[in-house]
Amino acid sequence: MDHETAVLKAQEIASRVLVPNAGDNDKAGRFSSDAVTALGEGGMLGLLLPVDLGGCGLGPRTFAAVVATLAEADASVAMVYLMHILGTATMSAARPGAAQAVEAVLLDIGAGRHLSTLAFSEAGSRSHFWAPLSRARRNGHGVFISARKSWVTSAGHAQSYVVSSLAPEGTGPTDSTLYFLPAETPGLSVAGPWDGLGLRANASAPVSLEDCQVPSDHQLTDDCAGFQAMLEVVLPLFNLGTSAVALGLCRAAVAATASHLKTARFEHLGQSLGESLPTLRAQLAGMQIDVDGLAARIDDLVDHLELPDETTMLRVLESKAAAGDVAIGVTSAAMRICGGAAFSRHLGIERLFRDAHAGAVMAPTGDVLREFIGKSLLGMPLF
Ligand SMILES: Cc1cc2nc3c(=O)[nH]c(=O)nc-3n(C[C@H](O)[C@H](O)[C@H](O)COP(=O)(O)OP(=O)(O)OC[C@H]3O[C@@H](n4cnc5c(N)ncnc54)[C@H](O)[C@@H]3O)c2cc1C
Q1: Ligand 1 center to 148 CA (angstroms)
Q2: How many angstroms does the Cα of residue 365 sit away from the middle of ligand 1?
Q3: Under a CB-based contact definition with an 8 Å cutoff, are residues 132 and 192 in contact?
Q4: Average pLDDT of 172-189?
Protein backbone atom coordinates (compact mmCIF):
# COMPACT_ATOMS: atom_id res chain seq x y z
CA MET A 1 0.00 0.00 0.00
CA ASP A 2 1.33 3.47 -0.80
CA HIS A 3 0.46 6.85 0.74
CA GLU A 4 -2.42 7.66 -1.62
CA THR A 5 -3.99 4.19 -1.31
CA ALA A 6 -3.81 4.35 2.49
CA VAL A 7 -5.51 7.76 2.61
CA LEU A 8 -8.19 6.60 0.15
CA LYS A 9 -8.78 3.50 2.29
CA ALA A 10 -9.11 5.67 5.41
CA GLN A 11 -11.64 7.88 3.57
CA GLU A 12 -13.61 4.83 2.47
CA ILE A 13 -13.72 3.39 6.03
CA ALA A 14 -14.60 6.81 7.43
CA SER A 15 -17.58 7.32 5.14
CA ARG A 16 -18.80 3.69 5.27
CA VAL A 17 -18.30 2.85 8.97
CA LEU A 18 -17.44 5.95 11.02
CA VAL A 19 -19.76 8.68 9.74
CA PRO A 20 -23.01 6.68 10.05
CA ASN A 21 -22.26 5.64 13.65
CA ALA A 22 -20.23 8.46 15.24
CA GLY A 23 -23.20 10.35 16.68
CA ASP A 24 -24.92 7.32 18.20
CA ASN A 25 -21.67 5.88 19.59
CA ASP A 26 -20.89 9.23 21.18
CA LYS A 27 -24.34 9.43 22.76
CA ALA A 28 -24.16 5.88 24.10
CA GLY A 29 -20.44 6.04 25.04
CA ARG A 30 -20.06 2.90 22.90
CA PHE A 31 -16.66 1.69 21.62
CA SER A 32 -16.73 1.09 17.87
CA SER A 33 -15.58 -2.51 17.38
CA ASP A 34 -16.90 -2.23 13.79
CA ALA A 35 -14.40 0.54 13.11
CA VAL A 36 -11.50 -1.55 14.47
CA THR A 37 -12.61 -4.53 12.36
CA ALA A 38 -12.81 -2.32 9.26
CA LEU A 39 -9.36 -0.85 9.94
CA GLY A 40 -7.96 -4.37 10.38
CA GLU A 41 -9.61 -5.71 7.22
CA GLY A 42 -8.44 -2.63 5.33
CA GLY A 43 -4.81 -3.35 6.24
CA MET A 44 -4.51 -0.18 8.33
CA LEU A 45 -3.51 -1.62 11.73
CA GLY A 46 0.04 -2.31 10.49
CA LEU A 47 0.45 1.05 8.75
CA LEU A 48 3.98 1.70 10.04
CA LEU A 49 5.07 -1.94 10.35
CA PRO A 50 7.67 -3.30 7.92
CA VAL A 51 6.28 -5.15 4.90
CA ASP A 52 7.91 -8.44 5.98
CA LEU A 53 5.65 -8.40 9.07
CA GLY A 54 2.58 -7.86 6.93
CA GLY A 55 2.60 -4.11 7.44
CA CYS A 56 2.48 -1.24 4.94
CA GLY A 57 5.99 0.07 5.67
CA LEU A 58 4.69 3.65 5.58
CA GLY A 59 5.85 6.63 7.64
CA PRO A 60 4.72 9.66 9.65
CA ARG A 61 3.30 11.53 6.60
CA THR A 62 0.75 8.81 5.90
CA PHE A 63 0.09 8.27 9.60
CA ALA A 64 -0.83 11.95 10.05
CA ALA A 65 -3.04 11.98 6.95
CA VAL A 66 -4.86 8.79 7.95
CA VAL A 67 -5.44 9.96 11.55
CA ALA A 68 -6.76 13.35 10.38
CA THR A 69 -9.11 11.62 7.92
CA LEU A 70 -10.47 9.32 10.64
CA ALA A 71 -10.81 12.21 13.13
CA GLU A 72 -12.82 14.27 10.66
CA ALA A 73 -15.43 11.50 10.85
CA ASP A 74 -15.02 10.30 14.45
CA ALA A 75 -12.24 11.51 16.76
CA SER A 76 -12.87 8.64 19.21
CA VAL A 77 -11.91 6.10 16.55
CA ALA A 78 -8.95 8.21 15.47
CA MET A 79 -7.66 8.21 19.07
CA VAL A 80 -8.13 4.43 19.37
CA TYR A 81 -6.14 4.03 16.14
CA LEU A 82 -3.45 6.47 17.28
CA MET A 83 -2.86 4.67 20.59
CA HIS A 84 -2.73 1.34 18.72
CA ILE A 85 -0.07 2.66 16.33
CA LEU A 86 1.97 3.84 19.34
CA GLY A 87 1.70 0.49 21.10
CA THR A 88 2.76 -1.20 17.86
CA ALA A 89 5.70 1.17 17.36
CA THR A 90 6.91 0.45 20.90
CA MET A 91 6.72 -3.30 20.29
CA SER A 92 8.54 -2.89 16.95
CA ALA A 93 11.39 -1.17 18.78
CA ALA A 94 11.61 -3.96 21.39
CA ARG A 95 15.00 -4.97 22.75
CA PRO A 96 16.50 -8.15 21.22
CA GLY A 97 15.43 -10.25 24.25
CA ALA A 98 11.75 -9.56 23.49
CA ALA A 99 11.89 -9.41 19.71
CA GLN A 100 11.03 -13.07 19.16
CA ALA A 101 8.07 -13.12 21.58
CA VAL A 102 6.69 -9.91 20.14
CA GLU A 103 7.10 -10.95 16.49
CA ALA A 104 3.98 -13.16 16.60
CA VAL A 105 1.98 -10.20 17.91
CA LEU A 106 3.36 -7.90 15.21
CA LEU A 107 2.42 -10.48 12.55
CA ASP A 108 -1.11 -10.53 13.99
CA ILE A 109 -1.20 -6.74 13.83
CA GLY A 110 0.02 -6.84 10.23
CA ALA A 111 -2.81 -9.27 9.49
CA GLY A 112 -5.30 -6.86 11.08
CA ARG A 113 -6.23 -9.13 13.99
CA HIS A 114 -4.75 -7.38 17.02
CA LEU A 115 -5.45 -3.99 18.64
CA SER A 116 -2.94 -2.60 21.15
CA THR A 117 -2.70 0.52 23.31
CA LEU A 118 -0.55 2.32 25.89
CA ALA A 119 -1.10 2.17 29.65
CA PHE A 120 1.29 4.82 31.03
CA SER A 121 -0.66 7.32 33.19
CA GLU A 122 -1.09 6.31 36.84
CA ALA A 123 -3.50 7.51 39.47
CA GLY A 124 -0.73 8.85 41.73
CA SER A 125 1.50 10.70 39.27
CA ARG A 126 -1.45 11.78 37.11
CA SER A 127 -0.41 13.52 33.87
CA HIS A 128 3.29 13.08 34.73
CA PHE A 129 3.32 9.75 32.90
CA TRP A 130 7.13 9.77 32.83
CA ALA A 131 7.15 9.08 36.59
CA PRO A 132 5.15 5.92 37.34
CA LEU A 133 4.55 5.15 41.02
CA SER A 134 4.23 1.42 40.45
CA ARG A 135 7.42 -0.63 40.65
CA ALA A 136 7.95 -4.03 39.01
CA ARG A 137 9.17 -6.80 41.36
CA ARG A 138 11.50 -9.55 40.20
CA ASN A 139 10.16 -13.11 40.43
CA GLY A 140 12.93 -15.24 38.91
CA HIS A 141 11.33 -15.57 35.44
CA GLY A 142 10.49 -11.93 34.90
CA VAL A 143 8.53 -9.50 37.06
CA PHE A 144 5.25 -8.96 38.89
CA ILE A 145 3.52 -5.64 38.27
CA SER A 146 0.80 -4.05 40.39
CA ALA A 147 -0.40 -0.63 39.22
CA ARG A 148 -3.39 1.69 39.03
CA LYS A 149 -3.44 2.91 35.44
CA SER A 150 -5.77 5.89 35.41
CA TRP A 151 -6.88 6.23 31.76
CA VAL A 152 -6.26 3.63 29.07
CA THR A 153 -7.78 4.19 25.63
CA SER A 154 -9.48 1.01 24.30
CA ALA A 155 -9.55 -0.47 27.83
CA GLY A 156 -11.31 -3.83 27.70
CA HIS A 157 -11.22 -3.87 23.88
CA ALA A 158 -7.49 -4.01 23.10
CA GLN A 159 -5.81 -7.42 22.81
CA SER A 160 -2.69 -6.07 24.52
CA TYR A 161 -1.34 -3.22 26.64
CA VAL A 162 2.10 -1.62 26.61
CA VAL A 163 2.62 -0.87 30.30
CA SER A 164 5.14 1.33 32.10
CA SER A 165 6.42 0.63 35.60
CA LEU A 166 9.48 1.62 37.60
CA ALA A 167 12.31 -0.84 37.04
CA PRO A 168 12.93 -3.14 40.04
CA GLU A 169 16.32 -1.61 40.69
CA GLY A 170 15.57 1.88 39.37
CA THR A 171 16.76 4.68 41.63
CA GLY A 172 15.14 7.79 40.10
CA PRO A 173 11.50 8.72 39.36
CA THR A 174 11.91 8.23 35.61
CA ASP A 175 13.77 4.91 35.79
CA SER A 176 10.91 3.02 34.18
CA THR A 177 10.75 -0.07 31.99
CA LEU A 178 8.07 -0.89 29.38
CA TYR A 179 6.37 -4.28 29.27
CA PHE A 180 3.98 -6.11 26.93
CA LEU A 181 0.87 -7.50 28.67
CA PRO A 182 -1.73 -9.54 26.74
CA ALA A 183 -5.29 -8.57 27.71
CA GLU A 184 -5.90 -12.00 29.25
CA THR A 185 -3.03 -11.64 31.76
CA PRO A 186 -4.36 -12.78 35.17
CA GLY A 187 -4.73 -9.76 37.47
CA LEU A 188 -5.34 -7.27 34.63
CA SER A 189 -8.86 -5.80 34.69
CA VAL A 190 -10.80 -2.75 33.64
CA ALA A 191 -11.33 -0.91 36.92
CA GLY A 192 -14.20 1.44 36.15
CA PRO A 193 -16.40 2.97 33.49
CA TRP A 194 -15.54 5.63 30.91
CA ASP A 195 -18.05 8.47 30.80
CA GLY A 196 -15.99 11.35 29.40
CA LEU A 197 -17.11 14.78 28.29
CA GLY A 198 -15.60 14.06 24.88
CA LEU A 199 -14.07 11.11 23.02
CA ARG A 200 -16.91 9.24 24.64
CA ALA A 201 -16.60 6.26 22.30
CA ASN A 202 -12.95 5.44 22.95
CA ALA A 203 -13.26 3.50 26.23
CA SER A 204 -10.54 5.42 28.10
CA ALA A 205 -11.26 3.63 31.37
CA PRO A 206 -8.95 2.93 34.31
CA VAL A 207 -7.11 -0.40 34.32
CA SER A 208 -5.94 -2.22 37.41
CA LEU A 209 -2.93 -4.55 37.52
CA GLU A 210 -2.78 -6.88 40.53
CA ASP A 211 0.40 -8.95 40.72
CA CYS A 212 0.43 -9.42 36.96
CA GLN A 213 3.15 -11.87 36.03
CA VAL A 214 5.25 -10.69 33.08
CA PRO A 215 7.84 -13.10 31.63
CA SER A 216 11.26 -11.66 30.82
CA ASP A 217 10.73 -11.96 27.04
CA HIS A 218 7.75 -9.57 27.41
CA GLN A 219 10.04 -6.86 28.77
CA LEU A 220 10.12 -4.46 25.80
CA THR A 221 12.94 -2.14 26.88
CA ASP A 222 16.12 -2.64 28.85
CA ASP A 223 15.82 -1.98 32.58
CA CYS A 224 15.30 1.75 33.19
CA ALA A 225 15.11 2.45 29.42
CA GLY A 226 11.33 2.99 29.37
CA PHE A 227 11.67 6.75 29.68
CA GLN A 228 14.03 6.87 26.70
CA ALA A 229 11.51 4.87 24.60
CA MET A 230 8.73 7.24 25.72
CA LEU A 231 10.76 10.20 24.48
CA GLU A 232 12.23 8.71 21.32
CA VAL A 233 9.57 6.28 20.07
CA VAL A 234 6.26 7.41 21.57
CA LEU A 235 6.40 11.19 22.00
CA PRO A 236 7.08 12.25 18.37
CA LEU A 237 4.32 10.02 16.97
CA PHE A 238 1.89 10.82 19.80
CA ASN A 239 2.31 14.57 19.35
CA LEU A 240 2.02 14.24 15.57
CA GLY A 241 -1.05 12.01 15.91
CA THR A 242 -2.87 14.20 18.44
CA SER A 243 -2.14 17.22 16.20
CA ALA A 244 -3.69 15.29 13.31
CA VAL A 245 -6.75 14.47 15.43
CA ALA A 246 -7.09 18.22 16.12
CA LEU A 247 -6.80 18.93 12.39
CA GLY A 248 -9.54 16.43 11.54
CA LEU A 249 -11.84 17.93 14.19
CA CYS A 250 -11.19 21.45 12.87
CA ARG A 251 -11.86 20.44 9.27
CA ALA A 252 -15.15 18.87 10.32
CA ALA A 253 -16.06 22.03 12.25
CA VAL A 254 -15.38 24.26 9.22
CA ALA A 255 -17.43 21.99 6.94
CA ALA A 256 -20.38 21.80 9.36
CA THR A 257 -20.30 25.56 9.94
CA ALA A 258 -20.16 26.39 6.22
CA SER A 259 -23.01 23.99 5.56
CA HIS A 260 -25.13 25.60 8.28
CA LEU A 261 -24.39 29.12 7.00
CA LYS A 262 -25.49 28.05 3.51
CA THR A 263 -28.65 26.19 4.51
CA ALA A 264 -30.09 27.98 7.57
CA ARG A 265 -32.15 30.96 6.47
CA PHE A 266 -33.60 34.22 7.72
CA GLU A 267 -36.84 33.65 5.87
CA HIS A 268 -38.13 37.13 6.66
CA LEU A 269 -35.07 38.53 4.84
CA GLY A 270 -35.02 35.94 2.05
CA GLN A 271 -31.34 35.14 2.72
CA SER A 272 -29.20 32.37 4.19
CA LEU A 273 -27.26 33.19 7.37
CA GLY A 274 -24.06 33.34 5.32
CA GLU A 275 -25.55 35.71 2.76
CA SER A 276 -27.01 37.91 5.44
CA LEU A 277 -24.23 38.39 8.00
CA PRO A 278 -20.68 39.52 7.13
CA THR A 279 -19.65 38.94 10.74
CA LEU A 280 -20.41 35.22 10.41
CA ARG A 281 -18.47 35.06 7.13
CA ALA A 282 -15.50 36.75 8.81
CA GLN A 283 -15.56 34.30 11.72
CA LEU A 284 -15.74 31.36 9.30
CA ALA A 285 -12.75 32.80 7.46
CA GLY A 286 -10.87 33.00 10.77
CA MET A 287 -11.57 29.32 11.37
CA GLN A 288 -10.22 28.39 7.94
CA ILE A 289 -7.07 30.47 8.47
CA ASP A 290 -6.41 28.63 11.74
CA VAL A 291 -7.06 25.22 10.15
CA ASP A 292 -4.64 25.88 7.30
CA GLY A 293 -2.07 27.15 9.79
CA LEU A 294 -2.39 23.90 11.74
CA ALA A 295 -2.11 21.81 8.56
CA ALA A 296 1.10 23.68 7.64
CA ARG A 297 2.47 23.07 11.13
CA ILE A 298 1.76 19.36 10.83
CA ASP A 299 3.45 19.22 7.40
CA ASP A 300 6.46 20.94 8.94
CA LEU A 301 6.59 18.41 11.79
CA VAL A 302 6.38 15.54 9.28
CA ASP A 303 9.31 17.06 7.35
CA HIS A 304 11.25 17.19 10.63
CA LEU A 305 10.47 13.59 11.54
CA GLU A 306 11.52 12.44 8.07
CA LEU A 307 14.77 14.42 8.23
CA PRO A 308 15.48 15.26 11.90
CA ASP A 309 17.80 18.04 12.98
CA GLU A 310 18.56 19.80 16.29
CA THR A 311 15.23 21.71 16.22
CA THR A 312 13.03 18.65 15.70
CA MET A 313 12.23 18.02 19.38
CA LEU A 314 11.14 21.65 19.77
CA ARG A 315 8.76 21.19 16.83
CA VAL A 316 7.45 17.97 18.41
CA LEU A 317 6.64 19.85 21.63
CA GLU A 318 5.20 22.91 19.89
CA SER A 319 2.94 20.99 17.55
CA LYS A 320 0.70 19.35 20.16
CA ALA A 321 0.58 22.49 22.32
CA ALA A 322 -0.52 24.60 19.35
CA ALA A 323 -2.92 21.99 17.96
CA GLY A 324 -4.78 21.67 21.27
CA ASP A 325 -5.42 25.42 21.33
CA VAL A 326 -6.41 25.59 17.66
CA ALA A 327 -8.88 22.72 18.08
CA ILE A 328 -10.54 24.37 21.08
CA GLY A 329 -10.58 27.78 19.35
CA VAL A 330 -11.95 26.59 16.02
CA THR A 331 -14.66 24.37 17.50
CA SER A 332 -15.62 27.13 19.98
CA ALA A 333 -15.99 29.52 17.04
CA ALA A 334 -18.19 26.95 15.29
CA MET A 335 -20.40 26.72 18.38
CA ARG A 336 -20.80 30.49 18.48
CA ILE A 337 -21.34 31.00 14.75
CA CYS A 338 -24.00 28.29 14.59
CA GLY A 339 -25.81 29.68 17.64
CA GLY A 340 -28.71 27.86 19.23
CA ALA A 341 -28.72 25.24 16.49
CA ALA A 342 -25.26 24.10 17.63
CA PHE A 343 -26.02 24.52 21.32
CA SER A 344 -29.12 22.34 21.10
CA ARG A 345 -27.13 19.57 19.40
CA HIS A 346 -28.84 19.73 16.00
CA LEU A 347 -25.64 19.91 14.01
CA GLY A 348 -23.11 17.52 15.56
CA ILE A 349 -20.82 20.49 16.17
CA GLU A 350 -21.04 20.14 19.95
CA ARG A 351 -19.50 16.64 19.66
CA LEU A 352 -16.54 18.20 17.86
CA PHE A 353 -16.34 20.90 20.55
CA ARG A 354 -16.34 18.30 23.36
CA ASP A 355 -13.88 16.00 21.58
CA ALA A 356 -11.54 18.94 20.89
CA HIS A 357 -11.01 19.49 24.61
CA ALA A 358 -9.33 16.11 25.12
CA GLY A 359 -6.11 16.88 23.24
CA ALA A 360 -4.99 19.62 25.61
CA VAL A 361 -5.42 17.46 28.72
CA MET A 362 -3.89 14.29 27.31
CA ALA A 363 -0.33 14.02 28.54
CA PRO A 364 1.98 15.67 27.86
CA THR A 365 -0.68 18.34 28.44
CA GLY A 366 -0.56 21.70 26.68
CA ASP A 367 0.60 23.33 29.92
CA VAL A 368 3.41 20.83 30.44
CA LEU A 369 4.54 21.24 26.83
CA ARG A 370 4.75 25.01 27.33
CA GLU A 371 6.73 24.43 30.50
CA PHE A 372 9.17 22.18 28.58
CA ILE A 373 9.48 24.66 25.69
CA GLY A 374 10.11 27.57 28.07
CA LYS A 375 12.70 25.61 30.05
CA SER A 376 14.49 24.46 26.91
CA LEU A 377 14.64 28.05 25.57
CA LEU A 378 16.28 29.07 28.83
CA GLY A 379 18.67 26.12 28.80
CA MET A 380 17.10 24.62 31.94
CA PRO A 381 16.83 20.84 32.50
CA LEU A 382 13.32 19.56 31.60
CA PHE A 383 13.02 16.98 34.40
C1 LIG B 1 -9.70 10.80 26.53
C2 LIG B 1 -8.45 10.45 27.24
C3 LIG B 1 -7.72 9.33 26.84
C4 LIG B 1 -6.55 8.97 27.51
N5 LIG B 1 -5.87 7.85 27.10
C6 LIG B 1 -4.74 7.49 27.74
C7 LIG B 1 -4.02 6.31 27.36
O8 LIG B 1 -4.43 5.60 26.44
N9 LIG B 1 -2.91 5.96 28.04
C10 LIG B 1 -2.45 6.73 29.07
O11 LIG B 1 -1.41 6.38 29.63
N12 LIG B 1 -3.10 7.84 29.47
C13 LIG B 1 -4.23 8.24 28.83
N14 LIG B 1 -4.90 9.36 29.24
C15 LIG B 1 -4.40 10.13 30.38
C16 LIG B 1 -3.79 11.46 29.97
O17 LIG B 1 -2.66 11.27 29.16
C18 LIG B 1 -3.42 12.30 31.19
O19 LIG B 1 -2.57 11.56 32.03
C20 LIG B 1 -4.62 12.73 31.98
O21 LIG B 1 -5.57 13.31 31.12
C22 LIG B 1 -4.20 13.73 33.05
O23 LIG B 1 -5.31 14.14 33.80
P24 LIG B 1 -5.12 14.55 35.35
O25 LIG B 1 -6.44 14.95 35.90
O26 LIG B 1 -4.42 13.44 36.03
O27 LIG B 1 -4.19 15.81 35.18
P28 LIG B 1 -3.30 16.50 36.30
O29 LIG B 1 -1.92 15.93 36.27
O30 LIG B 1 -4.01 16.50 37.60
O31 LIG B 1 -3.20 17.99 35.74
C32 LIG B 1 -4.11 19.04 36.15
C33 LIG B 1 -3.72 20.32 35.46
O34 LIG B 1 -2.39 20.69 35.85
C35 LIG B 1 -1.60 20.97 34.71
N36 LIG B 1 -0.22 20.58 34.97
C37 LIG B 1 0.25 19.38 35.41
N38 LIG B 1 1.59 19.40 35.51
C39 LIG B 1 2.00 20.61 35.13
C40 LIG B 1 3.27 21.25 35.00
N41 LIG B 1 4.40 20.62 35.31
N42 LIG B 1 3.30 22.54 34.57
C43 LIG B 1 2.16 23.21 34.26
N44 LIG B 1 0.92 22.66 34.36
C45 LIG B 1 0.84 21.39 34.77
C46 LIG B 1 -2.22 20.13 33.60
O47 LIG B 1 -1.95 20.69 32.31
C48 LIG B 1 -3.71 20.20 33.94
O49 LIG B 1 -4.27 21.36 33.37
C50 LIG B 1 -6.09 9.74 28.59
C51 LIG B 1 -6.82 10.87 28.99
C52 LIG B 1 -7.99 11.22 28.34
C53 LIG B 1 -8.76 12.42 28.81
Answers
A1: 15
A2: 6
A3: no
A4: 98
Residue range 261-292, pLDDT digits in tens:
999 999 999 999 999 999 999 999 999 999 99
Length of the chain as a residue count: 383
Q: Which of 31, 133, 151 to mutate to test the pocket of ligand 1 (most atoms within 8 A of CB)?
A: 151
Average pLDDT over the chain, rounded to an integer: 97
pLDDT digits (tens, 9 = 90+) for 61-72: 999 999 999 999
Task: Look at strands 142-152 and 205-215 and give their pairing.
Answer: antiparallel
CB of 368 within 6 A of ligand 1: the answer is: yes
pLDDT of residue 236: 98
Q: What is the pLDDT of residue 179?
A: 98
Give the residue among 244, 269, 252, 242 at the shortest CA–CA distance from 342: 252
The DSSP element (H or E) to which 21 belongs, if any, is: helix 19-28
Q: Provide the β-strand partners of residue 215.
A: 142
The CA distance from 3 to 65, in Å, is 9
Q: Is the minimum distance from the CB of 196 to ligand 1 under 6 angstroms?
A: yes
Atom number, ligand 1, closest to the C-alpha of residue 83? 8
pLDDT of residue 382: 87
Does 194 contact ligand 1 (Cβ within 6 A)?
no
Taking every pair of Cα atoms in the chain, the longest distance, rounded to a whole number of angstroms, is: 80
Cis ω for the linkage preceding 236 (within 30 of 0): no
pLDDT of residue 67: 98
